[in-house]
Specification:
The structure is a single chain. This protein has one domain. About 60% of the residues lie in helices and about 0% in strands. It has eight helices and no strands. α4 runs antiparallel to α5, α4 packs antiparallel against α7 and α5 runs antiparallel to α6. About 35% of the residues are buried.
């Protein structure tokens, strides 16, 4: 009775249990996060390859230089993309479109910054205003860098079509894609602020998008020609889009 059953096969090896998922490293625990960012070009490379470096440096003393560098990159990239937008209509739009795009992005960020800080405080986070402002400048920098990546495509279509509506839709698509990546960076940075809830951030994202698209209407024409630098008629962006789609031959600024 104590003999082993000769017909029994070998005992199969035990299935190893998968390792437990570990929590993501806090900022600074990875030595790569602590690598210094010495200038605008390094900041561009960092936000594309290792955004945690940006997030970590924004929480260190002396982050003002990094914020300034990201702001300068955002302005330069938006001016370049605005120049590409202006090549569609030529004339005064070669300087008006860059000025409106760069100015519109900065004004949008400034308008939305107070609400983001308030939502951050309500979420239970102890993030400072300078850190919030740094994340917003990172958002703008990543957005405008991606717009530069789309610039050759935008230039090709601006030279091969005369449709203001189509060019407007194309630029809105590029802007929307760039904004989504920028907001993803903001969300990643927000997750390191030890907030108890992200509901306020999601509300702010909707506010930011609404303000940005309304800014494109308030500063029209960005694509197309008009007699005035700013429109004389106040209009909601949905109404402006509807009129543009139904009357493509109408000047964009009216």
């Amino acid at each position: 009775m104590n003999e082993l059953n000769p017909t029994a096969g070998p005992i199969p090896p035990a299935i190893p249990t998968p390792p437990r998922l570990t929590k993501p490293l806090a900022l600074g625990e990875d030595p790569a996060d602590r690598e210094p960012i010495s200038g605008p070009l390094v900041a561009v490379e960092a936000i594309l390859r290792a955004p945690r470096r940006i997030m970590y440096q924004l929480r260190q003393p002396g982050s003002g230089r990094l914020i300034t560098a990201m702001l300068l990159v955002s302005i330069l990239c938006s001016l370049i993309y605005g120049l590409v937008v202006g090549t569609f209509s030529q004339g005064t739009q070669l300087w008006a479109a860059p000025a409106k795009i760069a100015g519109g992005l900065l004004v949008t960020a400034l308008i939305c910054l107070p609400s983001l800080y308030i939502f951050t405080c309500l979420s239970g986070s102890e993030a400072k205003l300078s850190e919030i402002f740094g994340l917003v400048t990172g958002l703008l920098m990543l957005m405008t860098i991606l717009l530069i990546g789309f610039a050759p495509v935008a230039w090709l279509f601006s030279q091969s079509t005369e449709s203001v509506v189509w060019m407007g839709v194309l630029h809105l698509i590029f802007w929307f894609i760039s904004t989504m990546f920028g907001l993803k960076f903001l969300d990643s940075g927000f997750s390191h602020f030890k907030a108890k809830t992200s509901a306020g951030l999601y509300i702010w994202v909707m506010v930011f998008i609404l303000v940005a698209v309304q800014m494109t209407t308030a500063l029209r024409p960005i694509v197309g020609k008009a007699d005035d630098f700013f429109p004389k008629q106040k209009q909601f962006f949905l109404s402006h889009w509807n009129e543009s789609l139904n009357a493509p031959g109408k000047p964009a600024g009216q």
